[in-house]
Design goal:
Catalytic activity: ATP + protein L-histidine = ADP + protein N-phospho-L-histidine
Strand order of the largest sheet: 2-4-5-7-6
Largest sheet: 5 strands, mixed
Number of domains: 3
Low-confidence stretches: none
Shape: rod-shaped
CATH architecture of the largest domain: Up-down Bundle
Keywords: Kinase, Membrane, Phosphoprotein, Transferase, Transmembrane, Transmembrane helix, Two-component regulatory system
Number of strands: 7
Organism: Nonomuraea africana
Protein name: histidine kinase
Pfam family, one: HAMP
Oligomer: single chain
Radius of gyration: 60 Å
Strand content: 5-15%
């Protein structure tokens, strides 16, 4: 049978289906990474601006407001100390003035570092004018007069106005920075929400890619394979993506087409074999009846010719008659052996569990005359139960023991049958004799039909017996061979295997 030509390889998918699974995940990973980087940068910038606004409110504006309050308290303490000193001339108020003056400088320094500006400079100038025109003359020993009191009220009023302007500025700045902080907080919340939404979107994108590129094509290919497995052998297998599954589906479909073509070719061959077997059975019928009848007539009439006209024939004529009768009988035996060979596995070949000692007993019964004539001794060990056909296994034992008796040496034939269990509940049988033996180079040749190692004059036979044994053992699922350790002149051992009860 010609080997089927290989089908062409599947064509690669086109478009985005060319992308393998790894590329799809790399694509999704790159897109997700870019989105995450952009979201992280946006979130980082928003968080930085939020931190800056928070710093301006908590670390700048609020401390400046507290410092302005300290400045107001210090200036008020100075004005109270000057008034008290002018009224009482008590030196303790000078110390209070000095402490308040020191507190004023410290507050001015803090405010200068935090929010310098013209309003702070106005406070400094107003306080300096008040000290020059009102506080320092009183502290220098001048008695307070009505005019001095008016100047003090005027100048310190300017200080209060400057402080109020500074406080109003800080309150306005605090309100603006607070609004900015709230806006940055809202922006940060929005950015975090967008980042979370982007993460969810990336996960959804990866899920869609997995579903669209992997899960759906795998499900589609699984449904196609299931349909083929259920008997729809004409169903083609094809998925478009990804590249790996597309290529795999193409190879599976090519394999399906090859198997389908081979199966259909096998069906045609099986039909042809059934037709040939029918013709062979018809031939076997013809051979068993129509061909043997002329041979029987040739043999019988030739023998009758010798009986009736034997006294009129010379020795050469009688020899010719003997040759004709022998040829007809050998032809008849050959036809019978060929029929037996052709019937193996076709007619009456049912296999059932049986004790292998039964076909051996049948074989010995059929060979009883030859065993008695030659003085042969046939022994056997314990024999197992096997699955086989009794008549065919009888033929195996009969052919092997018959060969052992036929190809005997100078001593009376001795044949021993044994069996041992091998792997997978298979039994190995052996038939050992003490005959002339067989050279190892003929180990395979002896099981071929019509193969003979000796002349017909020395050892008669058709050369089919071992071929029949091989065909029967093959039909039973075993194998038969010649033991390779045997040598010519030392007897022969033939081994064969048969299935045990578990193969029923």
């Amino acid at each position: 049978m010609a080997r089927p030509r290989p089908l062409p390889p599947p064509q690669p998918p086109i478009g985005y289906g060319r992308l393998p699974i790894g590329r799809w995940f790399v694509f999704a990973g790159v897109v997700g990474l870019l989105v995450l980087v952009a979201g992280a940068m946006l979130t980082t910038g928003t968080l930085t601006r939020f931190s800056e606004a928070r710093h301006e409110v908590i670390d700048v504006v609020d401390p400046a407001a507290l410092a302005t309050l300290d400045l107001s308290v210090a200036l008020t303490a100075q004005e109270d100390a000057v008034r008290s000193f002018g009224l009482t001339a008590d030196s303790r108020y000078l110390s209070a003035y000095a402490r308040a003056r020191s507190d004023e400088k410290a507050a001015l320094g803090r405010i200068e570092r935090l929010v310098p500006g013209p309003r702070l400079e106005a406070v400094r100038q107003a306080s300096a004018a008040w000290r020059t025109q009102s506080a320092e003359p009183v502290l220098g020993g001048a008695a307070p007069t009505k005019e001095h009191t008016e100047v003090n009220d005027l100048r310190f009023g300017e200080v209060r106005a400057a402080l109020n302007a500074q406080r109003a500025h800080l309150e306005s700045l605090h309100a603006a920075k607070s609004r900015q902080l709230e806006q940055r907080a809202s922006t940060l919340t929005f950015a975090l929400g967008m980042l979370a939404a982007v993460l969810v979107g990336v996960l959804v994108l990866i899920g869609l890619i997995v579903r669209h590129v992997v899960l759906l094509p795998v499900a589609e290919l699984t449904a196609q394979v299931r349909a083929v497995a259920q008997g729809d052998f004409d169903r083609s297998l094809k998925v478009d993506r990804p590249a790996e599954l597309s290529e795999l589906s193409g190879h599976i479909d090519a394999m399906r087409r090859r198997i389908l073509a081979q199966w259909r070719r096998s069906e045609e061959q099986a039909e042809e074999l059934r037709r040939s077997n029918g013709e062979l059975e018809q031939f076997a019928y013809v051979a068993s009846h129509d061909l043997q009848e002329p041979l029987r007539k040739v043999a019988s009439f030739t023998q009758m010719l010798e009986q009736r006209y034997g006294d009129q024939l010379d020795d050469r004529a009688k020899q010719y008659i003997s040759f004709a009768v022998d040829g007809a009988k050998r032809m008849q035996a050959l036809i019978n052996d060929l029929l037996d060979f052709s019937r193996v596995g076709r007619i009456g070949g049912e296999k059932v569990p049986l004790d292998s000692a039964l076909p051996l007993a049948d074989a010995l019964h059929n060979l009883a005359a030859r065993v008695a004539e030659t003085g042969a001794r046939v022994t056997h060990g314990p024999l197992p139960e096997v699955v086989g056909n009794r008549s065919q296994l009888t033929q195996v034992f009969q052919n092997l023991i018959g060969n052992a008796i036929k190809f005997r040496g100078d001593e009376p034939p001795a044949v021993h049958i044994e069996a041992r269990e091998v792997a997978d509940d298979m039994w190995e049988f052996s038939c050992a004799d003490n005959g002339i033996g067989i050279e190892e180079k003929y180990a395979d040749k002896i099981f071929l039909i019509f193969q003979r190692l000796h002349t017909r004059d020395r050892y008669p036979g058709t050369g089919i017996g071992l071929a029949v044994c091989r065909k029967i053992v093959d039909y039973h699922g075993g194998r038969i061979w010649l033991d390779s350790q045997q040598r010519e002149g030392r007897g022969a051992t033939v081994r064969w295997t048969l299935p045990g009860r578990s193969h029923e």
